[in-house]
Automatic annotation (TrEMBL):
InterPro entries noted in UniProt: HD/PDEase_dom, HD_domain, HDIG_dom, HDOD, RNase_Y/CdgJ
Highest classification ranks of the organism: Bacteria, Pseudomonadati, Pseudomonadota, Betaproteobacteria, Burkholderiales
UniProt superkingdom: Bacteria
Protein name: HDOD domain-containing protein
Pfam family, one: HDOD
Ranges where the HDOD domain occurs: 18-212
Length: 285
């Protein structure tokens, strides 16, 4: 199989040329970068975009948050979900608008989103056990595989080549990507996350979620460990409904640090499984 290398410079050029996000999403993201972020201003911005407002309310009223039908205002939704989590959801959904018809052999848009949402929900539920912010865990989990979407949408031939190798040689996606492309979806995703100006630890967690020890910053390493576990949980549940699903290896010591009883582990799995269908339906994914 021939090598179809993609450089990070090429990825950066692709990311820089992406269409602008909706104004409300851009302004909320910019507000989050400031220390004096105004929740009221962010709520107002979301309210001005009917599509974003509707999705925000549907997420807040999803069964995962236990508030079905009781959240009718954007302000209440932001309070419940957390502004960073809301911005992550709206940004990811806005970025993927229109990509459900993309053509990359071996790539399933539906499977991608179900796995990403499962990882996000698992990360949110597990974050307190590692003394991490649930909102940040949710966002990092939602975006952890965004590099796969960049490959499928903007480098479909190269992405298909990597997917084919992963299946034919029975190796991980990361191994196949590095063998055929010269870099992995995690590295590609980190370029986009940095472009969107998420906190540095989120970008590092996306970049190193398959190898958390490679993250230089301790906070980023902890977040990457959370995403590594959440990713494994999502794969174990096979909510992406992929017949070739493989659960990545996980350091037993990391799982033990979560201090999950059998009952708590079962509750986690059940919560994620219930939440994925509901959240994807709320976001029309």
């Amino acid at each position: 199989m021939s090598t179809a290398a993609i450089s990070l410079d090429k990825v950066q050029s692709c990311v820089d040329a992406l269409p602008a996000l909706p104004q409300a999403v851009r302004e909320v993201m910019q507000a989050l970068q400031r220390d004096d972020v105004s929740v009221e201003r962010s709520v107002h911005l979301i309210e001005q975009d009917q599509s974003l407002a509707a999705r925000t309310l549907r997420v807040a009223n999803s069964a995962f948050y236990g508030m079905s039908g009781r959240v009718g205002r954007i302000g209440d939704a932001v309070t419940l979900l957390g502004l960073r989590a809301v911005s992550g959801v709206l940004l990811a959904v806005s970025f993927t608008h229109g990509l459900d018809t993309l053509r990359c052999s071996g790539f399933s848009f539906r499977s991608y989103w179900r796995h990403s949402m499962a990882t996000a929900l698992a990360a949110r539920l597990l974050a307190p056990r590692l003394r991490l912010d649930p909102d940040e865990g949710f966002v990092a989990g939602l975006l952890h595989d965004i590099g796969k979407l960049v490959l499928a949408a903007h480098f479909p031939a190269e992405g298909a080549q990597a997917l084919a190798l992963a299946r034919s040689a029975d190796v991980s996606d990361v191994e196949a990507e590095r063998a055929t492309l010269g870099l992995s979806h995690a590295e590609i995703g980190a370029v986009l996350v940095r472009h969107w100006r998420f906190p540095a630890e989120v970008a590092q967690a996306v970049e190193h979620h398959h190898q958390p020890t490679a993250a230089a910053d301790p906070a980023a390493r902890s977040l990457a460990e959370l995403i590594e576990v959440a990713n494994a949980v999502a794969h174990a549940l096979d909510l992406a409904e992929d017949p070739l699903e493989v659960v990545p290896p996980l350091d037993p010591a990391l799982w033990l640090r979560l201090d999950l009883s059998d009952a708590a582990a079962l509750a986690l799995l059940a919560g994620v499984e219930r939440g994925v269908d509901d959240m994807c339906r709320a976001l029309t994914l």
